[in-house]
Each structure stands twice: as C-alpha cells, then as structure tokens.
Amino acid sequence: MNFLAKNGKGLLLCLVFAIPACILGRLLPVIGGPVFAIVIGMIFAQIIKKKDSFEGGVKYTSKKILQYAVVLLGFGMNLEVVMETGKQSLPIIVCTITTSLVISFVLHKVMNIPEKISTLVGVGSSICGGSAIAATAPVIDADDEEVAQAISVIFLFNILAALIFPAMGAAIGFSTHSGEAFGIFAGTAVNDTSSVTAAASTWDNMYQLGSQTLDKAVTVKLTRTLAIIPITLVLAINRARKEENQSGGTVSLKKVFPFFILFFIGASIITTVAVAAGVPIESFQPLKEISKFFIVMAMGAIGFHTDVVKLVKSGGKPILMGMACWIGITAVTLIMQHFLGMW
Q: Is the pLDDT of residue 193 over 80?
C-alpha cells in the first residue's frame, strides 16, 4: 500500500503516456513508440504545473521499469540461433561497434561533448538504439535529459536509414534475388529494431522475397544486442574506478554493478533451454511485448522530466556526433561485407 500511495499516480500517468505512444508507434514504426512517448511526456510536462504528487512514480518508471524492460528483452533471444548467425556477422558487428565507440570518444574530446551523452550516443548507435541506451543509462547514472538527448539523436538517423538504405542497397549492387546481403547490412548498420524491421521489410516488398531479409536482419540485430553485456560491465568497472579516484577511497563494484544485466542473461538462457526442449519461441512473444511497452513507459517518464528548451539548445553537437557514428558504421559495414564476399 505504501508503494501505491507513493508511486501510484506517477505510474498511472506514465501508463497514460505509453498507450497512445504504442498505438502511434505501430502506425508509424519508422518513428517508434519510444519517441512518441518522449514527445507526449514533454507535452504533459508543460500542461501539468503541480508535479510533486507524480514524482515518485515517474522516477520509479524512468529507473526501475526501464531495467525490468531490459531483463524481459532477454526472453526474446534464443542464444543458439543468435550464435549461429553470429558466426557470419560477428566480424562486422565487432568492427562497427568499435568504430562507433571510437568516433564518439574522439568527438567527446575534440568537441567537448558531455561524457554521458557521448557514451549513450556511441552505445546507442553501435548496438541497438533505445534498448542499449536503456541498459547503459543506469550503469553510468545518466539523467533523464541526457537519455532524451541520446534517444532523439538515434531517432533522427533511424528514420534516415529506413528511408535511404533500401534505395542505396539497390544502387550499390546488393543481390535482389536474396535477402542475405541487405539483411546483414540492415541488421548491422541500422540502430533501432523498429527501423531495422522497416528497412528489411521494404527490401522484401521491393523484390518479393517473402520475409528472407527481415528474418536475417532481425537475427543479426539480436546478435548485436548481446554486446550490451560486455559494454555495460566495462562501463560499471570504469565508473567504480572513477569514483574511487574522486573520493580517494575504495568504491565497491557491487554498488555500481548492473545486476539487471545478469537477469537479462538468465532470461536469454531460459529461452534457449526452453526452445531446445521443444517450447515454441512464439511462447515468449508476450514477454517481448511487455518489454517494449515498459521501454515506452520509461521514455514517457523521461520526456516528463526533460526541459524541451534545453534539449533543443544543446542538441547540435550530439547530432553531429550521431551523424559521424552513423556514417562510420555504414561505411565499415559495407567495406566489411565487400571484403568478406557478401556482395
């Protein structure tokens, strides 16, 4: 009862943000529910003047619900299938992730972009957009405005990728008789799942390939998602080391360790074992949908905490960083696919 008294109104408000955002996200998947939720949250932040009674639930949603979403994301991953596809796409994935992280680090130093925003943009660009940002934000203790900034940057280049890549794939000579090459390209070079799906489905529709491209792209995307694990662990260790240096004492790694990532791994293992035992992968679809809904709820909460004027004013440098990461990932993906004889 104490929990509901403290958090109930805020949780209900985030639910109000999430429902229309999910509907709009399904109507316009290239934009996606999380972006709509951030915008709706920002609008309500201007309308609601007395926010104190909502604060507990909104904060709980932006922190805890976001972590629960990452855990449930693991139920969508059959590690056996992911590893099989990973044999083919892993060299490309490693190179693109490295490229994005290096670019974001260099531009963070050169352009004096705040470290946490740089980390979120670099990780979001290289791994899996909103999901990676959701997993990384609590590990580096990013605030809601930093998360909203990173999500906005990722969203911009998601749309560009979904619109441009199918035409570009045809222009540079990807096979139109198979979804293999473009599926790997979309799975490694596009940030967020919604835009990966949009780009791959467009290719399938253009050349009557059924769901060949989509199946390949989504599986490659899931392989990229696994990179959340080592990156969040490295970031946690790095944060503990920095806090030790600043405090002059010892900081327990347990204090900053992302334990929810262990539950994410556990969920993936449960799915893999269950599927191997004969349970249809579709049985886990409801948990995946709940994960997506929780992310949308959390993004609504983040939008509610975001100063839209400050977001617009500070957006220039992060957008340039996002563009540099996006171009770098695209170029490296194409070079690696050509080098490996995939097109």
A: no
